[in-house]
Amino acid sequence: MRIRYDFSCRLWIAECQSHECGVRFSTMLQSEWSLDNTLPVPQLPHCWAKAIVGALALLCFANSYDGDFVFDDSEAIINNKDLRPETSLRNIWEHDFWGTTLISNTSHKSYRPFTVLTFRLNHLIAGGLYPVGFHLVNIALHSVISVMTLDVFSVLIGGLAHDEKGKLLNMAPKASFLAAVLFAVHPVHTESVAGIVGRADLLCALFFILSFISYCKAFRKCDTGGEFSLHWILASLLLCAVAMLCKEQGITVLGVNIVFDALVICKVDILQLGMALLRKDKMPEKNLTWRRGLFTRILLVASGGIVLLYGRWRIMGSGPPAFTEVDNPASFADSVLVRAVNYNYYYSLNTWLLVCPWWLCFDWSMGCIPLIKSVSDIRLFAPLVLWFFLFGIMVQALCSRNTDERRVGFVIAERVIYLSSAGYCMLLSYGICILSRQGRRVKNIISVAVTGLVILNILRCIRRSYQWRTEEALFTSALSVCPFNAKVHYNVGKNLADRGKEISAIQYYREAVRLNPKYVHAMNNLGNILKERKELHEAEKLLSRAVAIQPDFAAAWMNLGIVQNSLNKYEEAERSYWTAIKYRKKYPDCYYNLGRLYADLHRNIDALNAWRNATLLKPNHSLAWNNLIILLDNTGNLAQAEIVGKEAVKLLPGDHTIMFSFANVLGKLKKYKESESLFLKALQINPTIASYHGNLAVLYHRWGRFDLAKERYEVALKLDSASPGIVENYNLLKKRLEQMKGER
Q: Of 716, 728, 675, 677, nearest to 699 (Cα)?
């Protein structure tokens, strides 16, 4: 059989040696073309349609290419050691998306090694964490996916047909083009494209589509699924596994493939089949062919799905991820009815974002969507309306006598917002086809409306992707959308604190705690700022409250210990530090602060042990190394200080503070040349520190190089004329020089 498009008469023509097969395809094609031809969309060659869709996708999100790492990018990319070349590739397969060991209790169990691998390649190619390369890949992926949806929509709307070379044919060129354009410019995609961690959704969607297309390629005959290519079915399963390794939802393509097989390939009449099963009627002999083929494919797909799920379960460590009430309050509701109602309300909100994507926010937790707890809540109408329309679509898809109208409907089951938007775009395109039949006047109105919708969506995408360029713009934009979301206020406060605007940050942190009195992270950050501002008593109350709410919050315990130490509550501070270490065994910062406490109490051995633990857990812990050298120096253990200093300089060759401390030790050991070299290196890195010049002057003074000493003292005094130590040493040098003059 050969299928071609005749541009002279604008008709699809099916040519087949089999008369029966040709009649069936001719009838189907004429029916589809009569529907597709009503659309107020220009007829374009397939290559031009793909070029336009790809260009529109690029246009919408191109201005995000030079954005920063924002929101979750910090944890998934900046703080994720699995991206660094020095880290073993094996870690990618043993850690979750955020770089945490999968078997850890703190892991979210989000196993996406292929996505992390692409991040690592970005890092390797760019030679560092430069966001431009990451953003460009995301934008390119969305463009490619948008182009590929043309083939998917043509199959779902127009039916399945191939040319002689096995290439899928576009049986509904106008409808599939419109649906692909709507997908390319949908503003709800902004987070997936402009947020770098959204690459998981993009890669999952890419391989989801490839898996679906591969499944479609398995059918080259006109026998409604009796014969199929096993190789393409296996290829589809392999691509599903890849999609799943990009993001967990990739496995849902197996369900989509099976439903597509039953409804579109085998043209199963669900209503007739259900009635036959109820009456226990025998199926006609003519149905045995597709039944054998369909059941074989269901067995193959189900077996593949079971293997994938079992592998996923084993990788997760046979345990589920741990979530808190703030992640999804509905899951923690006591009543089953309350949980069910709120889940359905969330579905209706997701649907509303597809229909009207103007109310967008980077985070929807923590009070952004208050729970529905009463039958008098007007929001109950939202899930009712949603299920009314879904029921109508399911009736249309499963029970309609028109087999062409049964081709839409099953994609609605997708809950992942990036992929589910494809189902919405297809349904919208199909609905516009139906409305366009109502006459020229209606067709003209629809033409203007569709053009306006596309333009508005493009402008919204450009605006929204611009907001995703910086954390300041992103977090601030959410305040008007979710003013009662504690996490929004927390993130605005954190961004302000990072930029040194502590007073403004305090206001937002306080509001976050007011909106969510159990928000321990906001309490911890607010306590830290108050600690730095010497408001120690309020900081202690906040941090004590945080650890009372969440006893295993190690960071809050450590910060509480720092505050208690500053308040001279030494015993309580020590208990707080050890409690933090109890809940986080490998906590170098806590060991460092514990060492400071012991040093204040003159428990020098304990301080040295604590700082040594900090350096063992974190070899680049500069402060711990520096304090080790200084304490050993101050207690007269110069030989041990020299050993530690050499080890520290080797590990941190660019740290000028360690060079300075080690140089002082070498000077006392009368290793003047080595000491001078370290002082000069430290000054080359930071020449503005008066004590560096002053101590180098002392070295020259001891060494007997008085002219150099005088020169360094004068430089030090220019930088800090009030330093008593430098002034005193300089006066001693001047007396010595005068004495030498007198002796001459």
A: 675
**How many whole angstroms from its chain centre is CA 364?**
15
C-alpha to C-alpha distance for 674 and 659, rounded to whole angstroms: 11
CA distances from 60 to 209, 372, 491 (A): 21, 36, 26
DSSP reduced 3-state for 409: coil
Instruction: Give the pLDDT confidence score for residue 162 in this predicted structure.
Output: 67
Q: What is the mean pLDDT of residues 126-149?
A: 94
Which range, 7-16, 440-449, 673-682, is most confident? Answer: 673-682
Q: Is 14 helix (H, G, I), strand (E, B) or coil?
A: strand
In this prediction, residues 108-112 reach a mean pLDDT of 83
What residues are paired with 15 via a beta bridge?
A: 2
HEC profile of 214-268 = HHHHCCCCCCCCCCCCHHHHHHHHHHHHHHHHHCHHHHHHHHHHHHHHHHHHCCC
Phi-psi region of 135 (alpha: psi -120 to 50; beta: other; left: phi over 0): alpha
Q: What percent of the chain has pLDDT over 90?
A: 48
Burial of 531 by CB count in 10 Å (0-12 exposed, 13-18 middle, 19+ buried)? buried
CA distance 712 to 723: 14
Give the sign of the dihedral formed by CA 241, CA 243, CA 249, CA 251. negative
CB 177 within 8 A of CB 49: yes
Mean pLDDT of 103-109: 73
Would you tell me how many other CB atoms lie within 10 Å of the CB of residue 639? Answer: 11
pLDDT tens track for 624-644:
999 999 999 999 999 999 999
